[in-house]
Design goal:
Blueprint (H helix, E strand, L loop, with lengths): L1 H34 L5 H14 L2 E6 L3 E4 H9 L10 H16 L10 E10 L2 E11 L5 E10 L2 E10 L1
Antiparallel strand pairs: 1-2, 3-4, 3-6, 5-6
Helix pairs in contact: 3-4
Length: 165
C-alpha cells in the first residue's frame, strides 16, 4: 500500500512541474509578443533623425565652454535654465531646432511630404507639460510618427517627430 502512494505522489509532482514549465513558457511568449513594436522604414528613419537631432550641439553653453546638445537644451528649457551668456534656453532651443529642420527637411507642394511637427513633452505620473512644439508646413490625418524618450528626473521627456503626407 505504501509503494502505490509514493508512485502517486511522484506522478503528481511531475505533473505540477510540467504545468509550471508550460505556464512560464507561455508567459514569456505572451510578453515578447505584446512588446513587439512594428516599425516600418519611415518610422526608423524618423527615429534616427530624432536621435541625431538630440545630439546636435547648440550655441548655448553652460559653465564656460561646455556647449549644450539639443537633448540637454530641452531639459534646460523645461527647467527654466539660462545659457551662460544669459540667453533664454527655450529661445535658443527654438532657433536651433528651426534652423536644423529647415536645413535638412524638404516639404511642400513639390515634395512627397507636406510638413513636419516636432514636439517635446515632459511626463511625470499623470502630469504632462509641453516644452516645445514646432510645425513646418501642413499636416493632416496621413502621417508617420516616431519618438524617443530620455530622463529628466523625476520624470521623462519624450521628443516626437511627425512626418505628414
Amino acid at each position: 500500500m505504501r509503494l502505490s502512494n509514493k508512485k502517486g505522489q511522484e506522478e503528481i509532482a511531475g505533473f505540477v512541474a510540467i504545468v509550471l514549465i508550460v505556464t512560464i513558457i507561455m508567459v514569456i511568449f505572451i510578453g515578447v509578443t505584446l512588446n513587439k513594436k512594428s516599425y516600418d522604414r519611415k518610422n526608423i528613419g524618423l527615429m534616427y533623425y530624432l536621435q541625431s537631432m538630440s545630439q546636435v550641439t547648440s550655441n548655448c553653453s553652460s559653465y564656460g565652454a561646455n556647449y549644450r546638445d539639443v537633448a540637454d537644451l530641452i531639459r534646460d528649457c523645461h527647467n527654466n535654465r539660462k545659457c551662460s551668456s544669459g540667453a533664454n534656453s527655450c529661445e535658443e532651443l527654438n532657433n536651433t531646432l528651426r534652423s536644423m529642420m529647415n536645413a535638412t527637411l524638404t516639404y511642400g507642394a513639390n515634395y512627397s511630404r507636406s510638413g513636419y511637427i516636432f514636439s517635446a513633452i515632459y511626463k511625470f505620473g499623470v502630469q504632462e507639460d509641453k516644452i516645445i512644439s514646432i510645425k513646418l508646413g501642413n499636416c493632416s490625418d496621413d502621417y508617420t510618427k516616431a519618438d524617443i524618450t530620455f530622463s529628466d528626473l523625476p520624470g521623462t521627456i519624450t521628443s516626437s517627430m511627425q512626418e505628414c503626407y
